[in-house]
Batch of 3 targets.
Target 1
Amino acid sequence: MTRSLRSRIALGRCLIIVAALWALPGLARAAGLSLPAVVDAGQAFTIPLEGSGQATFYLLGPDHVAKRTVSLGSDLRILSKDVRTAGRYQVILCGSSSSCTSATFEVKAAQPEQLSFFLHPSRVPVSTPDSIDATAFVFDQYFNLVLTPSAVDFQVTPANGAGFSRRVSAQHGVAWMRMDSTPHEGRVQVAAVLGKVEEARVIQQVAAEACGLRMKAMPNGNTVTLETDPVRDCSGNALPDGTVVSFTKVDKKGKSTVDTPIKKGVARVQFSLHGPAQISIACGVVLGNEVALNGKL
Amino acid sequence: MKRMAEWMLAGKKIATRLVTAASLLIAACAFAAAQSSAQMQLPEVHLDAAGLAPRPIEELTGTTIARYYALAWRDMAAALESGRAGGLGDEFVGFAKDRLTRRIAEQNQAGVHVRIVDHGHHLKATFYSTDGAAMQLRDQVELEVQTFDGDKLIDTQNAPREYMVLMTPGADRWYVRDLEEVSAKSF
């Protein structure tokens, strides 16, 4: 018998065995899986299972793993709860002949329904350029980051003065903006709004550095009382009580500095004098006027 | 004299056996150490933070992020293979930790586990908040993912993947807060 004849006989036997196995009832034959390429999070769908008999079905997702026995030749229902998390899902189907087929599909975030909103800082001086940052992360109802662009409105409502709104398109689920603080002290509410969803945060605007700092001197014998005008910033906001004002006296006994807090809007201090003296005033980084005493006011 | 010679011979045999046992022990330790270092090996992570907005990244922050991201992948791969989620809290918080913990619990229920062969990550930082409280990154990675039911290999996936990552700083490290696999079309 020639070699080619032998190989033909062997091939024929193989074909007969395969045909016999195919004809056996109850033996699973899992064909290729037909899956949608992309599914919205939480959207149920069906997978048609070709073949006949039983097979083991596996679904592996970012936060979910399922394994069950399925009947081939029917539709397999993938429930909403199986695909709530965005990401890549893997489907594996193993027939009883130990052969497995697999396929993947992507679950993408559903419609935007949640905002995670950060406002920074919590306190800011008035009229400071680019001092307030607002960042909003856009999520769907299952807290998947929504990567498709969506418009987020940042609505700014100061305690005094007119409010305004700025629309920002979220890129890869993140919308952010930077803005100047407004001229008046007090609460400013910033809300991130996306459709019906609104997340609000409050920022406290405080007076900025002192502006036009001035003191007046009231000499009385060998002492002098110094008192500031009401201490305000350049927008007219009163600096809060407790803000420290420094008075510095230079006379023939040397240099002497007294730090005193603002009380009821003004700072006051008393010095003893030893001959002619120069007195200066400062608050933070701001210098005020100078006075010269002993008849040289 | 004869007894002494026997004693010396017995002593030699014991010494030879001890040396053999010690050699075997050292070899076993070396093998275990090699295995352990292979398991502990961090995947390569390259971070590109060019043009990052609204805040630029400091060099030290970049190094720290790459390191903790690599640790996160190492620990995630270990947890997915072993079915033990205990170590995830060192690198994951929030949604990422919750989802991974749930996945591992369900894997264990199904008797499935996954082995990840990590060929390295190319991270691109896309957003860094001004207050430094959050950084968003895109990861392009080459992974070989082998899925087992018990000891039986049922599937192998070998393809480039992309992930959207959200990291936030903790007291002494950066945590992965969100890790979502996305398609390249998302960008």
Target 2
Amino acid sequence: MQWWNRAVLIAACVLSTALDPVRADDAAIPDSNPLSGDAKAIKEGRDWYQNVCNVCHGARANGETARGGRAADLRIFNRGFRAYVETVKRGRNTTGLAFSMPAWGGVLDDETIYQIGAYLETLAIDGANWKEGKSASQ
Amino acid sequence: MKTLSSTLGAVALSAALAGSMQDAGAGVSQAVLDAGAADNWVHTNGNYAGQRYSTLTQINTANAKNLKIAWIYSLGGRNDAMATPSYYDGLIYVPQDNKVYAIDAQTGKGVWKYEYKLPDDWGGLFADFMAGKHRGVALHGDYVYFLSNDAKLHAIHMKTGKAKWVKSFEGFQAPRDFAKAKDSTGYLCTVGPMAIPGTIIVPMNGTDFGGRPGYVLGVDPETGNLKWKANMIPGPGEVGYDTWPEGSQEYGGAGPWIVGSYDPQLKMYFTGTANAYEWNPKHRGGGKMDNLGAASIVAVNTETGKVAWRFGAVPGDYLDFDVPQTPILIQMNGKTVVAQPNKTGFIHYLDAQTGKFIKADKFADKVNWTTGMDSNGRPMNVIPLPEEGGAKVEVWPGLLGTVNMYPNAYNPTTGLFYLSASDYGMMYGIEPIKVVSNVRHLGASWENINGPEVDQAWNPATGKEAWRIQRDKPGYAGGMLTTAGNLTIFTTQGGLFQIADATTGKVLYSMELGTAAKAGPSTFMVNGKQMIVQAVGGLPGFGRDEQYPGLNFGSMVVAFELQ
């Protein structure tokens, strides 16, 4: 291959990697959070939650959103860890509401999403379920 | 952009017949802009001074009880209605959800609707919260000047609803979809421009959407070309440049996100500015450097676009105690004074010409973030910076402020301010700063300690409260209007439209409008009848919704007149 062809090919590969958000294959999401109970993960997850999630889900994760109406109360999230990860990555387009949950998969990596999950597990109240590996689409 | 020959013909005819403005003699002329609020309501805040005061007396304390609803117009909005309706020559103009509605004031029927679609790549980190919100439009000559959320200025013909031009300004990009863009910082504008003769003043806010530094632009009404831009954060050579660490100005914030006021003698435009960015002050001096220009009152020379002075109301602020409230111009002891009721729980009074501090009135019931201002207006004994990631501290007032963006009014006849106030507090904590798509995060978190809405009358001369109507639920009235008929008019957070005696606070008329108010009313004359118009609709938000069970989202404009 001519050197300049290779350069163009390499540039195209680099460019396409830069443009496509890196998304883990959904099949690779474990059934339960590998970072559950990890003190460092919980601390990091809390910091991320308070920066990017609390505007909609509330400082106490109870869904009391700044903009009015309600986001999901994460203290009673009960669809299991896999559904949590899928929802965060893909967002939700909830009909009837003026606002939807954004898709974070392009900007938060897996480890960060798991860390936030580990933090949210510490806020769980009666009725929450973080363990079972049900898919969000079921 | 279409050029309609009929429009040009109409403009030429009007120019031949009317007005004395230097560059466009038609429609809203200099005389109309100068006149303030009487037959027309052409400024979002009523007059140049930002007083939201009308000289009309047809509706007054004797007959206000005989008001009725004239008509209701549905805006179909998806976000809170925040606009004060503007009125000129038979048509009411209301911006909502990146559209502008022209409504026949007599009949309440829609005459035209201008629609603008945000770009496909729109969507900064908190952009959803703001998209669709606009505080008002500006009227000048034959055009309605509208600022869409993506920082574009639209010149829309008043009678036809067609845009002559839509201008974006270099360096003021909109926030891009943070889930896709590597850099989603940008300018998200929810306020309206202000028209003065020959210039459209355009506030550019980028605070909290990546910390883009705030500017006020001066734009030519005919062409949309930029005449000048005034930086809120001081540049090299300006007083206060050294109150920011080197390089921190680029993400400084300090957005001027209200409709300001104007003094035609001083030729100055006055605005309050938002907080420095991030809320966690570690990158901008840790609370020990003043960050002048942020959380400040700023005066811009409208001839040159140079900043005349900046007064730092909350130096080095780390509580999100910014002061983007309209600096209202009043006369005190023979001088023109800038009087700004703001988030901090104080009304700051400054000499309008020099920016020199005169006094500050504590109008909030409970203030614990400072023990008061020294003789230069500097807050004393400020509550210490909370530890990053540590326990939250209790602060009064809370960061939404004793007053927020719901506009306040001043009545030169009663000599009183009318404040859309709330006495509430917060638990506030400082957090590590995370960065997403080049948007540096706030680095803070908070929870409200709910307190009551207080519809409050304040006397600037005595520094004392004149009267109050205290509600048993949290939030703010949508905004104040006051008139020479001795009336103060507003709608509560819960949607109760009321008219009170401006001197005593006695309620003369009430009507439940059935949805939350986030906007202030306006008043004007239509075919010899005085009308009062209120855009209403939204949800209380900020954790207050539970206090208002049964209050649902709505979106409409309600017009009142005497029976």
Target 3
Amino acid sequence: MNNEFYNTELLVRYLDKELTAEEIIAVEQRLAAEQGLREELERLKLAREAVRLYGLKQQVGKIHTQMRGTGSVIPISRRNNIQTISRWTMRIAAIVVLAVLGIGVYQYSTLSNEKLFAEQYQPYEIRASRGAETESLVEAAYKKKDFPGVIAAFNNSPTHVTADYFLVGQAYLQQNNAKEAVSNLELANASADTSHLYKDESEYYLALAYLKDKQTDKALRIFRKIHSDPDHTFRDKVNRWFLRRLSLTSD
Amino acid sequence: MEESKHYSDQELLELLKSGDGIDAAVRYLYRSHFDFLGIYVQQHSGSVQDAEDVFQEVVVAFIDLVHHNKFRGESSIKTFLFALNRNIWLNELKKRQRSAIREMKFENAKPVEDEAISEYIVAREGRQLVMDLVNKLGTTCQQILVAFYYQNLSMSEILSQLNYENEQVVRNKKYKCMKKLEELIAADPILAKNLKTALQYE
């Protein structure tokens, strides 16, 4: 063991408080006398502090790594981004769900035969091309939109053709008499053959009369038939959305 | 249980001063202050990595100051950590000299309000050399010296962790490691001066 190493060992033991009282006195006497030894002791103190700081850094670094590994420490901006994204996603999703639910609830709560009828119903208008020379009193009154006159003319006429039943059915719809509208439009619809001028119209308005008369199942059956017939005159008016809502009002 | 435990400032200081409590204290510091301090760095031109690095340095510096009785408790730990975090980050920005704007920001920064923080900032550069210095030692030297001087393990405990014949061999190895470290410091007078500034707490 050389002298230099002996000195280091002595100084390290001095720093570590491993010397006896006599040895301490001896070392301190030497330190007082030898500048080189004092400088070495200072450097050993620095070395010891460096090791302590190194150890502390290692320990904190290890915990930092562990906490990141367990997700306890997630970089703030990333977490904020995630939170912001998920927060906004949740908000948007909640708004969409609430909106859909709200619309659904509103639609359901406000859904009624009257409402669906009002959406769908447009008074029938006789087209001018229909032969004027064979115009009946019923038809003449209808053209004038004299609906009580239509009903009176119909009742005063001993014989009726399909068109009469159809038009008086329309007149009863205008007068909000759903029962009479249904019975006359049923006759119009039953008597209508494929060549009948009012065939599609009879079917469509009979369904509307059923709807107004709260005979929803019968109305639904006819509307579904119209919807499934691509050639039907009123097919475009009877869409899926209408059928779906109508089915909600049926028992 | 530990994850949800709250410590008062006094309890935390006692935990930090007790050798066995440092893990729990560091975890608590992360849980309680990482977000708050990290946001400051990120709001002042720092990246996520900067925020993490600075916080790690803040924790190390704070514990070191506590160990050297430099934290006098004149402000709360939270306030102290915030000031430490801000000054370390501004010092880092200055060091990086990224742009004139950031330099302006540094010049306009609030003065350091705590003497211990001021001393730390002065010594900061030297402290960063410590890691480089100890890294120059071999792994065995690092293990022995850290176990003895930082973890305060006895020679018999160190012997149980390392593959040596007996305690005296470990003891001799420790002297050699210390000598090597001392020689590294002696070989570089500027390093020695910087370390002295950085580590002289006694």
